[in-house]
Amino acid sequence: MKGRILVMGGHEFDRLDGNEAIVEHVISLTGKKAPKICLLPTASGDPEDQISRFRRSFGSRGCEVSDISLFRLGANPIDVSAHLMKQDAIYVGGGSLVNLVAVWRPHGIAELIEECLERGVMVVGQSAGAMCWFEAGITSSSGRPEPAEGLGLLKGSLCVHYHRDPDRRSRYLAEVGKGMPPGYGADDQTGLLFADGELSEVFTAREGAGVWKVTRGEEGGVEEPVEAKDIRPKKEAGPDGSPIDDLRALNLYRRSVRLR
Questions:
Q1: Which residues span the domain enclosing 193?
Q2: Based on the domain organization, do 249 and 153 belong to the same domain?
Q3: Which active-site residues does the annotation give?
Q4: Is 163 in contact with 169 (CB distance < 8 Å)?
Q5: Distance (Å, rounded) from C-alpha 209 to C-alpha 36?
Q6: Which CATH number characterizes residue 148's domain?
Q7: pLDDT reported for residue 236
């Protein structure tokens, strides 16, 4: 498999818990100041709220944003192939892994995106939009964690929302122990970048969030933490070396004490 695929355990288009740092990192990975980025929100049924939040998040940073709704092609026809080929990055949103794969197959989206990858378009995905590139993942499409097949562009498996969803994590460890291809467990606000099918970068954007390599053991899946770089912006240091945000909070506290 040629090209770059960035997969994330969970990411929202808001300002909480490192999400903004991830948006900035995605933009930086394109190598352009104002990249063209298209959202494919298929896994959630192309909801308007996800589309508007995506447009606001990336659009406010100067990106040329667009989206393609496969559920609305009849009302809003577009040359999907030509449009995706012109992008610097394609962002695949979360939702149902089972539904995503089922809808994409008759439209030939996986083959089209594989061609985009070969032409240098970076693919970004979170949750279902991350697991779909692997051979398998753990989905909650039916309401409870279940193993499901992916598209197989990347070897192995992926489990998202790793520690936020303990039942999903437990099922993943059990399935790897029973024969599911080994892979990775990724917390929300973490990511793994694959270049030409090989892992080239692991990052975290939230304190305490990490990535684990999961292999098969005698009694189930075995976890091993993966070293991840912190992509959060560095806090400005004050005169004594303390983060400037902490100094401001301390000064506010001191002033409140004096006023009592």
A1: 4-227
A2: no
A3: 127, 161
A4: yes
A5: 29
A6: 3.40.50.880
A7: 61
51 & 129 share domain:
yes
User: Per residue in 222-249, pLDDT tens?
Assistant: 999 999 999 999 876 555 555 545 444 4
| Residues 87, 120 contacting (CB under 8 angstroms) | no
* 211/162 same-domain check: yes
| Whole-number pLDDT of residue 260 | 38
Give the chain's largest Cα–Cα span. Answer: 69
pLDDT at 142: 85
Regarding whether 51 and 163 lie in a shared domain, the answer is yes
For 201, the 3-state DSSP assignment is: strand
95 lies in the same domain as 222: yes
146-152's contacts with Cβ under 8 Å and 24+ in sequence apart are 146/171, 147/171, 147/175, 147/180, 148/97, 148/98, 148/101, 149/101, 150/97, 150/101, 151/101, 151/104, 151/110
Amino acid 241: pLDDT: 55
Number of domain units in the chain = 2
Residues 150 and 248 in one domain: no
Residue ranges in the chain modelled with pLDDT below 70: 236-260
Query: Residue 133 in contact with residue 150, Cβ under 8 Å?
Result: yes
